[in-house]
Design brief:
Layout lengths: L7 E2 L17 H8 L3 E8 L13 H14 L5 E9 L5 H10 L4 E5 L2 E2 L2 E2 L11 H18 L4 E2 L6 H8 L8 H14 L2 E5 L14 H9 L5 E4 L15 H8 L3 E6 L2 E6 L3
Parallel strand pairs: 1-2, 2-3, 3-4, 4-7, 7-8, 8-9
Antiparallel strand pairs: 5-6, 10-11
Bound molecules: zinc ion (2 copies).
Length: 271
């Protein structure tokens, strides 16, 4: 197996997520076959009442399954413990107690719900202009980052996943001011961002976020960047990772970030 130029996939799901059927124990062998050296299985944990995933996540069982996989694959691949928590700022007590109760390496903070709507589903867009949709989302995301508590912002421009189909376009540049405010606050809080390649599997066809946003983040002094496929199926892991070295270089990054017990470390892309 050739080693991938990007050795980490830090965003994927297993059957501990309501929307994935992949047994956690299958993930390490899939990753090894692709040439990954390190993965983080970031199952969904949600507290939002309308979210189907609410109450589904079982952290103790997740950690038991992860420990079994760590023993089985010891010395062959690094398996980080992760979770993708939705709307942290709206459920701070629940989120913080989960983060404290278990030895997570890495926590993605994602915003999936705005004004009682899932931002990936059609009803969020009904009767609303493109500007209203994205401004409401980014304003809420700024609140979430301002609260903090997690390690990276998940799929920063996620409403485009369906918004592209509704409006026939998406441009980060039109929301530069609020996105820069989010990035600035993230940097102050020690929060990084991820490049999520999963959005490129949808009609929008681009990674989340795009090169523009990666450049702004770097320009503002941002250094923490993880790479994730958001795979929910046995396939899709490390999706289009071969394109990432050029994008990272164009944005001014020479390293990607890994996390151990919530502490970031850097992996040089030249090595
Ligand atoms: Zn997500
Ligand atoms: Zn995800």
């Amino acid at each position: 197996v050739t080693r991938l130029p990007i050795p980490h996939d830090y965003h994927m799901h297993s059957a501990f997520s309501v929307d994935s059927q992949v047994p956690l124990g299958d993930r390490p062998a899939q990753a090894l076959a692709l040439g990954l050296r390190e993965i983080c299985i970031t199952d969904h944990c949600d507290f939002t009442p309308l979210e189907p995933s609410r109450g589904y996540y079982r952290p103790a069982d997740y950690f038991a399954a992860l420990e079994r996989a760590r023993e089985e694959f010891d010395g062959r691949i690094t398996l980080r413990a992760g979770v993708e928590i939705g709307e942290w700022h709206q459920f701070p007590e629940e989120a913080e107690s989960l983060a404290r109760a278990y030895p997570y390496d890495f926590i993605i903070g994602s915003l999936h719900w705005v004004n009682d709507h899932d931002v990936m589903q059609p009803p969020y867009f009904e009767g609303r202009t493109e500007r209203e949709v994205y401004e409401a989302y980014y304003t809420e995301l700024l609140k979430m980052v301002d609260h903090g508590g997690f390690d990276v912002i998940g799929h920063l421009d996620i409403p485009k996943r369906h918004g592209f189909t509704v409006y026939g376009r998406y441009s980060d540049v039109e929301f530069e001011e609020v996105i820069r405010a989010i990035l600035r606050r993230a940097i102050e809080q020690g929060i990084g961002i991820e490049i999520n390649t999963g959005t490129a599997r949808r009609p929008v066809g681009t990674f989340s976020p795009t090169l523009d946003v990666l450049r702004w983040y770097r320009e503002l002094g941002g250094e923490i960047i993880t790479t994730g496929s958001d795979s929910h199926r046995p396939v899709d892991m490390a999706y289009r990772f071969e394109e990432l070295p050029a994008i990272l270089a164009a944005a001014g990054f020479s390293a990607i970030t890994g996390f151990e017990r919530r502490i970031p470390y850097f992996v040089d892309l030249g090595s």
